[in-house]
Amino acid sequence: MTGLPPLGETQEAPPLDFFSSVAVMAPRGRDETVARQLLAKDGIASISVLSLTQLSELISQHIGAVLITEEALSGADADALALALDAQPSWSDVPFIVLANGTTGSRSERAAQRIDTLSNAVLLSRPLHAEELIRAVRSSLTARGRQHQARRQLEELQLRERQLFESEAKFQAIANSVDQMIWSTLPDGFHDYFNDRWYEFTGVPAGSTDGEGWNGIFHPDDQERAWERWRHSLSTGENYEIEYRLRHRSGDYRWVLGRAQPVLDKDGTILRWYGSCTDIHEIKVAEEQRHLMLGEMNHRVKNTLAMVNVMVSQTLRLADNLRDAQTSLQSRIAMMAQAHDRLIATSWAETRLPEVVDAALAAHRTGEGRFDIEGPDLEVGSKQALAMTMAIHELSTNASKYGSLSAQGGKVRICWAKKDDVFTFTWVETDGPRVSPPTKRGFGSRMIEQALAGYFQGKVELSYDPEGLHFKLSAPGSGLLL
Amino acid sequence: MYSENTSRLAVLVVEDEPLLRMDAVDMIGDAGFKTYEACSADEAMALIRDNNDIGILFTDIDMPGSINGLKLAACIREGWPSVEILIASGVVGVTDEVMPEGSKFYSKPYVTAQIISDMKTIAASEEHSV
Prior knowledge:
The structure holds two protein chains of two kinds.
Chain A: E1 22-25, H1 31-41, E2 46-48, H2 52-60, E3 65-69, H3 70-73, H4 78-86, E4 96-100, H5 109-117, E5 121-125, H6 130-177, E6 181-185, E7 191-194, H7 196-202, H8 220-236, E8 240-247, E9 253-264, E10 270-279, H9 281-318, H10 322-346, E11 351-352, H11 353-361, E12 371-374, E13 379-380, H12 382-401, E14 411-419, E15 422-430, H13 443-456, E16 459-465, E17 468-476
Parallel strand pairs in A: 1-2, 1-3, 3-4, 4-5, 12-14
Antiparallel strand pairs in A: 6-7, 6-10, 8-9, 9-10, 11-13, 14-15, 15-17, 16-17
Helix pairs in contact in A: 2-4, 9-10, 10-11, 10-12, 11-12, 12-13
Chain B: E1 10-14, H1 18-30, E2 34-38, H2 41-50, E3 54-59, H3 69-79, E4 84-89, E5 104-107, H4 112-129
Parallel strand pairs in B: 1-2, 1-3, 3-4, 4-5
Helix pairs in contact in B: 2-3
Domain Response regulatory (chain B): 10-123
Pfam family, one (chain B): Response_reg
Organism (chain B): Sulfitobacter litoralis
C-alpha cells in the first residue's frame, strides 16, 4: 500500500490520503481479509493494525476512521487507546465502526463501557454485510473529512491571528525604535496615535495630545502658521511639511521638522494621515550661527576694503612720487593682511590686545630684542584692534626710517594698562638719533593724531621729543570695546 | 592741493568711522569746500542748526546714536529743504523709497572723483540760482 505512513516512531506528517484511510484491526479469523477486500474494491485505503498501541499511534496522527472487532477492544493496552482518544484536539472525533459480538443484551457491562469510551462508534453485527460495511465506513469518512476541513480553517484563522499579532508587534518595535516622533490621524485630521518618542520628547501623559491637543505643544508664535498649513493639507490632500518649535519636556522649545502624507485607497480617498516630527534644533542653531558668522565676515571684509580705500586715497594724496607711494601702500596692505591672519586665527568674536601688538610688530622685528613690551591681557573690539594695528605699523615704519629703530641699539618701550577704568597705551623711543618734528605730516601721523583717538573715544598725544618720540593714547575703559 | 575755485557751500560730513571721516573731510576739503564733521546724527543736527552755510549733507547710514543716517537725511530734508543730500553706505538693499526725494546714493567704498564731481555740480547750480 503506497502513500501510507511508515508506522512506529516517526514524527513526520502523514500524507493527505492518510486522513481518508481506515485502520482495520481484526486479529482473529478472516474478518480483516474480508473487510479490507471489500474496502479496496470500493477504492477505500486501509491499514492493517495488529495492536492497540499501534492503533493509538494512528489515532494520534488523525487517521480517517477505525474498523475494529469488539474482541480487539479488550486486548492489551486498552489504556493507551483511551489516552490517545483523550488527547485528541477539540475538532477531532475519531469514528469507530465496531464489529460486534452478537446483540446488546448479551454484552457485559465492561464490554459496553469499552464501546462507550470510543464516543463516536457504530456497531455492525457479524457476519459482515458488504453494503452495510461500505455505507458505514463511507459516512464515517465523510464526517471525518468535515472535521479535517474545520481543522484547516481553524489553523488558518490561528495563523492569521498570529501574523496580525506579529505584524502589530513589528510595527510597534519599528515605530518606537526610530529617532523621529511618529503620529497618525483619521482622514479629518483627528490625531489618534503617537509613538513613544512623542511622549518621551514632550513629556505629556499618553493620550493627552489626541484630537487637537497637539497644537498646545507648539510654540505660541508657530501655532497659527502650523494650523493653517495643516488645514491646507487636509483640504487638498497635499503633503504636509513645516518647521516649527515644539515644547520639550525640559520646558525649552526646540526646532522640529514636521512632515505628513496621506495614505489613499484605490479610489484616491484618504484613509489616514501618517506624520513624523524630526528634531532639527542643532542644525537650526548651527544655521543661525553660520548666518551670524557670514554677516560678521561680510561686515569685516567691507570694513577692511573701506580701510584699504582710505589708505590708498591718503597715501596718494600726500605722496611725493608714485614709487614711494607704491612702497608705502604695499607695506600698509601687507600689514593689514598679516593683522587679519593673526587676529582671525584667535577668534572671530574677541581679540586680545597682546595679540594685536604682537601681530602689528611682526614685520618690524629683527631679532635683536629692540622692543620692550608690557601690558595685561585685555579684550579689544575688532575696529579698535585694526586701528591699533595700523597705528603701531605707522609708528614702527617711522621709527625704522627716522626714529630709534634706524640706529644701532635704539629701543622702543611699549606699555599699556587699565587703571580706574582708564586705558593708556604708550610708545616711547630711546637711544635713537635726535628727533625733530617732521616738516610734512604724512598719513601715519595724521592717522594716529586724528583717527586713532576716535576709535577709542579718547585722546592722543604725539610728541617729537629730541630724546625720542613719545606717543600716548588715553581712553575710557569702555573705549576698548566700542 | 586745494582747488582754485573755492565754493561758498559748506559740506557736512557725517561718519562714525574716524579714518573714513578723516579721508572724506580731506578729499572734500581738497576740492575747495569748507567742511564740518560729525561722528553721529545727533552731532550733525547740532552742527546744521548752528551753521547756515551748510549746503550739502554727506552722510553714512549705519551709525550709533539716537537716529541713523537715513533718519538724519529725512530730518534735514524736512527742516532744511535746500540742503542737498548725498548718502554713502556699505549696507545693501537701500532703495529710493527709504531715501529723501532727490538724494543720491553711493555704495561704499566709493569713488572719490564721482562724489566730488556731483558736489561741484550742486555747488554750480546753487551759485546760478542765487
